Amino acid sequence: MKTTVSVLGAGVGSYPGLSRAHPRLLEEASKRLREQEGGLLADSFVARCADGLELVMTHTRGVGDEEILDLGRDVLQSCVGIAAGMRLHTAGRGSIPVPVEMEFEERGSEPVLLFMAAGAREGAGNLHLFRTFADPFTTPGLVDNLSMRDGFVFEVHDLAGRRKALFRTPEESYALLACIGEPARYVVARVYSKDGAIAAAASSGWPGRGEHLGSTYQVTLVRAESGFPTVGECLAPFMTPFLVAGGLTTTTYAPLMPVAVCDANRTLGDGPPRATCLGFQVCTGRLIGPADMFDDPAFDPVRRRCLELGEMLFGHGPFEPHHSRAREAETTTRLVAGPRPQDRWEPLG
Phi and psi of 186, rounded to 5°? Predict the structure, then answer.
């Protein structure tokens, strides 16, 4: 029997400002999910990254099961009600949750990593997933491990064109990079082995109902070991700072900083965007863990560099490269508030 891991989350209310999710919301979500264990669910866990609340659910009902997804939405809505009663920040105004799911036959040992990012838009995981599953300088196992030498298949979603495509690596690596290097449009949604086994699933903002639902809370599920990159190889991309759209508003660029869960609180400039990683062993649908994978002094150097980069970019204020290009921000309140800038232009000469 196959195991399904479903993650559903959103910002349902935070304090103070966008800093962190309130503990009472985590307690409510945990209580509601535990009531379903042994019935709809095999197991559950409630996680958070900054003000984002994530519901982790395991079951045997497959990907896209409406009862599972409705349960997750109902739990999040219950948390919204509590947040509204406490007058928490953004209570009820968080992004619409888009599920991240994977279904698989459990191996003899089944490590699963849950990466979460707060204050980052879709595509924040593009670089991480490419370096994990297609870059031998991050993942030497792509060369050394015969079970991975054939490479992987990336499913990419084109948010503007409402379409998807598959790219096979290593033979189509450059074509893949030509797309996913533009994360505002192209998002890695899933990664598969060449024999079709799911290796990773990520937030794409595309729930399949004809509309794109933007979010600043990103989730990536990654299976590790035994034919997939090792746990250490999955973490290695975070040793180098990389910029994502996020930070103070969704129209700014900032470094994605890997932190322990206790440090996943947005403060100075509402950033920089935080990334956390929880490690689980999945055993007959049960979640063993989690382990806080970024709670390690080995990541201290990259955290310092992220803070330096964040300070430099924040100092640019409304200027690029701190703020995104106008074409990426056309739908944001920053540009549509007040008179539209394009209405005041006249031809030259």
Answer: -105, 130
Residues with Cβ within 8 Å of 225's Cβ and at least 6 positions away in sequence, in order, are: 109, 111, 231
Give, as one character, the DSSP assignment of residue 107. -
Distance of CA 106 to the CA centre of its chain: 23
Q: Reduced to 3 states, what is the DSSP secondary structure of residue 71?
A: helix
Beta carbons of 115 and 277 less than 8 angstroms apart? yes
List of domains in the chain: 1-105 (3.30.70), 108-281+296-335 (no CATH)
Q: How far is 148 from 227, CA to CA, in rounded Å?
A: 6
Contact in structure between 230 and 140 (CB atoms under 8 Å): no
- Do residues 202 and 131 touch, judged by C-beta distance below 8 A? no
What is the torsional sign of CA 273, 20, 224, 212?
negative
Answer whether the bond into residue 229 is a cis peptide, omega within 30°.
no
How far does Cα 164 stand from its chain's mean position?
A: 19
Grouping H, G, I as helix, E, B as strand and the rest as coil, residue 72 is: helix
167, two tokens: 């790219």
The C-alpha atoms of residue 81 and residue 101 are separated, in whole angstroms, by 26
One-letter amino acid at 98 equals V
Phi, psi of 79 (to 5 degrees): -65, -35
What DSSP line would sit under 203-258, residue for residue? --S--SSSS----SEEEEEEE-SSSS--HHHHHGGGGS--EEEETTSTTEEEE-EE
Q: Helix, strand, coil % (nearest 5) of the chain?
A: 30, 30, 40
> What is the DSSP pairing of strand 257-258 with strand 274-283?
parallel
pLDDT at position 247: 56
Place of tokens 């699933």: 201
- The per-residue pLDDT for range 40-98, each reduced to its tens digit, is 999 999 999 988 899 999 999 999 999 999 999 999 999 999 998 998 887 766 566 77
Beta-bridge partners for 323: 252
